[in-house]
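[Discussion] Sanity-checking designs against the backbone

I'm trying to build intuition for which residues belong where. Below is a C-alpha cell string of 324 positions. I'd appreciate it if someone posts a full sequence so I can compare it with mine line by line.
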C-alpha cells in the first residue's frame, strides 16, 4: 500500500463486520427445523461451516488489510467459533439480540441480519461487511473501495437481475425474488431500468446511508424482518445499497475489466475436477477478493472438502491473532 492510501485508511478508521453461523452448534438445527416451512429454509449451503472459512478469511485480513481498525463477528447467541480467541485485540463478538429487535428473533434470514448490521455499537462511519466465505487473496487498499472523488466502488457482474415485474413470480428463488423487490423499490424512488447484479465480495458500507434506506422504506424493512427465513417481498439490503448509492451520487460501478482483475468467485461443487480447476484459476489470477461459495448441498464430497482444506491451509498458513 502506498503512503497516501495508508494515511487515508488510518484517517477513515475502517472497521470490519463478519456474519457467521455454524449449524453443527448444539441446538441450532433443532431450532431451525422448528421454524422452517420450505426446502429453501433448510438449505445447508447457507448454514454449514465445514471448512472453517472465516478462520482463513481472518488470516487473509490480517495479512492483506493490516490498516483496518476493529473486527466484529455478528452471530446468533451463544455461538462463537471453537478456535477463536474472544479476547483478541480489536475483536468483538456481537450476538443478534444486541442489535436486532426482540420481536424479530430468532431469525435465520440473512436479509434480517444484514439489514441491522449498521446498529453495532461503536462501529466506524464506514465499515467493511464481509461474509464468512470471502477472503482477501492479495494486498487490498482503501482505494479498492473508494475512488478519488470519494464515491464508493461496486464491482458489477455482467448479468442483470430479475425485473420488478418478477417480484410475484413463484418460480424464482427467495434470493432472486428479493432482488426483484429491490428493483421495484428503486424504480419507484428513482428511474425504471435493468440493473446489473453486484459481485459477492466485501462491501464498503456507509453507516449513515445504510440507515437512510431503512428510513426511506420502513414498511419494506419491517416486512423483511418479520420473516424467519428469506421470503417473497423481502429486501436484500446488500443489493439495494449499491444502487441506492449510485442513484444518490455516492457510488459508482467499476469497469468489467477492473472487476475481472480484482475478484474471483468459485462455487464449490461435489466434483474433484471442478475443485482442481478452481484452485488453478485462483493461483493463476491471485485476485484481491476471493469467494468460495458452498454449493455442496446435503452431502459434501469428502475428497473435495479435504482438497479445499489443504489448499486453504497452504494458502493462508500463518495463524492470526484471532485464534487461540
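Best answer:
Here's mine. Compare freely.
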Amino acid at each position: 500500500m502506498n503512503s497516501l492510501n495508508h494515511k487515508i485508511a488510518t484517517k477513515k478508521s475502517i472497521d470490519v463486520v463478519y456474519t457467521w453461523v455454524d449449524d453443527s452448534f448444539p441446538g441450532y438445527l433443532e431450532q431451525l427445523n422448528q421454524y422452517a416451512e420450505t426446502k429453501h429454509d433448510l438449505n445447508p449451503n447457507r448454514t454449514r461451516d465445514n471448512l472453517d472459512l472465516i478462520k482463513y478469511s481472518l488470516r487473509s485480513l490480517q495479512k492483506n488489510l493490516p490498516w483496518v481498525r476493529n473486527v466484529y463477528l455478528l452471530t446468533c447467541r451463544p455461538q462463537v467459533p471453537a478456535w477463536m480467541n474472544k479476547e483478541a485485540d480489536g475483536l468483538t463478538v456481537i450476538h443478534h439480540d444486541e442489535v436486532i429487535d426482540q420481536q424479530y428473533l430468532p431469525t435465520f434470514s440473512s436479509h434480517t441480519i444484514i439489514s441491522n448490521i449498521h446498529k453495532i455499537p461503536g462501529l466506524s462511519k464506514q465499515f467493511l461487511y464481509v461474509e464468512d466465505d470471502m477472503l482477501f487473496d492479495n494486498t487490498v487498499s482503501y482505494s479498492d473501495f473508494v475512488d478519488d472523488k470519494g464515491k464508493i466502488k461496486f464491482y458489477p457482474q455482467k448479468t442483470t437481475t430479475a425485473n420488478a415485474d418478477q417480484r410475484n413470480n413463484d418460480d424464482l428463488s427467495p434470493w432472486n425474488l428479493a432482488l426483484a423487490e429491490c428493483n421495484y423499490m428503486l424504480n419507484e424512488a428513482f428511474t425504471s431500468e435493468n440493473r446489473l447484479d453486484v459481485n459477492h465480495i466485501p462491501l464498503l458500507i456507509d453507516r449513515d446511508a445504510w440507515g437512510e434506506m431503512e428510513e426511506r422504506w420502513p414498511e419494506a424493512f419491517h416486512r423483511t424482518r418479520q420473516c424467519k427465513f428469506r421470503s417473497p417481498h423481502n429486501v436484500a439490503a446488500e443489493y439495494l445499497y449499491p444502487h441506492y448509492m449510485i442513484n444518490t451520487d455516492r457510488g459508482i460501478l467499476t469497469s468489467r475489466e477492473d472487476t475481472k482483475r480484482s475478484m474471483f468467485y468459485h462455487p464449490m461443487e461435489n466434483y474433484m475436477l471442478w475443485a482442481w480447476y478452481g484452485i488453478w484459476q485462483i493461483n493463476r489470477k491471485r485476485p484481491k477478493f476471493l469467494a468460495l461459495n458452498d454449493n455442496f448441498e446435503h452431502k459434501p464430497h469428502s475428497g473435495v472438502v479435504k482438497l479445499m482444506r489443504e489448499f486453504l491451509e497452504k494458502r493462508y498458513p500463518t495463524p492470526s491473532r484471532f485464534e487461540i
